[in-house]
Amino acid sequence: MRIAAGTRYAPHRHTEVEELLVLESGYSIAGHEMTVGDYHRAEAGTVHHDTSTDDGCLLLVISSPQNEMLQ
Questions:
Q1: Are residues 57 and 6 in contact, defined by beta-carbon separation less than 8 angstroms?
Q2: Residue ranges of the chain with per-residue pLDDT less than 70
Q3: Torsion of the alpha carbons at 36, 1, 42 and 25, rounded to the nearest 10
Q4: What is the pTM of this model?
């Protein structure tokens, strides 16, 4: 998944396990800064409120498209 610079992902709850690997640039999940080579796993039921990239990034993502959006 290529994500444009300045992208902020809406708060959401994972309905299934999500795994991601940062391939280019950087990504922030819940205030945790991730860089190239970093891996993240979120169990089903995990809530992410602050997910973003300032510079844009490329991620390998394995996730359900059925995330519950929170607003």
A1: no
A2: none
A3: 20
A4: 0.90
